[in-house]
Specification:
alpha+beta, 8-stranded antiparallel β-barrel, 14 strands
């Protein structure tokens, strides 16, 4: 009996401690704060936040790997049978080929290298767009965007650039008006910007037009675009020209600025780098150079 009484006493003494261990503290514990940098917030403002984007298809690195069905689905002609290719090769010297739209200049294929304004190489424009359908940087040459320079009579007349291994439904690389832009104009004193993204068809040189583009397709937000924005210098620098709704023009590097925003994995074109930075955070001002294959 004494031992039973002893065990009962020990159990009664242990009960308050057990209850205290299993009960919540009377002192409230403050929640853990998650600190977000201004750069993170800027990336959210640059693109729509909290949006489930639509996945966009990309062409493979090498178009020779596509089946005829895949080529047709991407708007490309089917591959010719091997024996037909041999017959054509044998008679090519007898039947001169003519371009449907003769151009004075060649339309070379190559990639686009990216460097900052001090000349430091950052990589290449990448073939894979981000979730919003915007092109960014890659340091892997095998993942560089392959493009065709669709110039015709002059390097200084704005022309289109066509992507070979990029967004399959949006082959023309151009500028798409930014999500937070208040209108289609890029100019000094404005925070407006345009993404470097893909368009489904060419837009004649002039102010931005309503055309199917990768940003609008990915987000469901309709934004205008320009594609004939490119010119080429004697040193193969690709300059960008944007036409405003009043016909005014801004061009890199004098009156427009091409920026890379690492937090968004995207390039933007703006008419005022300082005003853009005040709203979205600073980016790295860059230049594009065409590298012929």
């Amino acid at each position: 009996m004494p031992s039973f009484t002893r065990y009962l006493l020990l159990a009664l003494l242990a009960a308050p401690a057990a209850l205290a261990a299993g009960s919540p503290s009377a002192v409230p514990v403050p929640p853990t704060r998650v600190h977000r940098s201004f750069t993170d917030a800027a990336a959210d403002a640059l693109n729509p936040a909290g949006l489930a984007t639509r996945a966009l298809a990309h062409n493979p690195r090498d178009l020779r790997s596509l089946t005829n069905g895949q080529r047709l689905a991407r708007g490309l002609p089917p591959r010719s049978p091997a024996n037909k290719v041999r017959r054509r090769a044998a008679t090519a010297s007898l039947v001169p080929r003519q371009s449907a739209v003769p151009c004075a200049l060649s339309q070379p294929t190559g990639t686009i290298s990216v460097a900052d304004t001090a000349g430091n190489a950052l990589g290449f424009v990448g073939r894979t767009a981000n979730n919003f359908g915007e092109y960014g940087v890659t340091t892997d040459a095998a993942e560089a965007l392959t493009v065709i320079v669709r110039r015709c009579d002059s390097n200084t007349t704005p022309f289109d650039i066509e992507a070979v291994n990029g967004l399959s439904a949006f082959p023309y690389v151009g500028g798409v008006v930014g999500f937070a832009s208040t209108d289609d104009n890029l100019k000094a004193g404005s925070t407006n910007y345009a993404y470097i993204a893909g368009a489904a068809s060419q837009v004649a040189y002039g102010a931005a037009q309503s055309v199917s583009n990768s940003f609008s397709s990915a987000t469901g937000t309709n934004k205008d675009a320009e594609t004939a924005i490119w010119t080429l210098t004697d040193t193969n620098t690709l300059a960008l020209t944007w036409v405003n709704t009043d016909g005014g023009v801004v061009s890199t590097p004098s009156s427009a600025h091409l920026l890379y925003i690492p937090s968004a994995s995207a390039f933007t074109l703006t008419g005022d780098a300082a005003r853009f930075a005040s709203a979205f955070g600073e980016g790295t001002e860059v230049a594009f150079t065409f590298v012929a294959a």
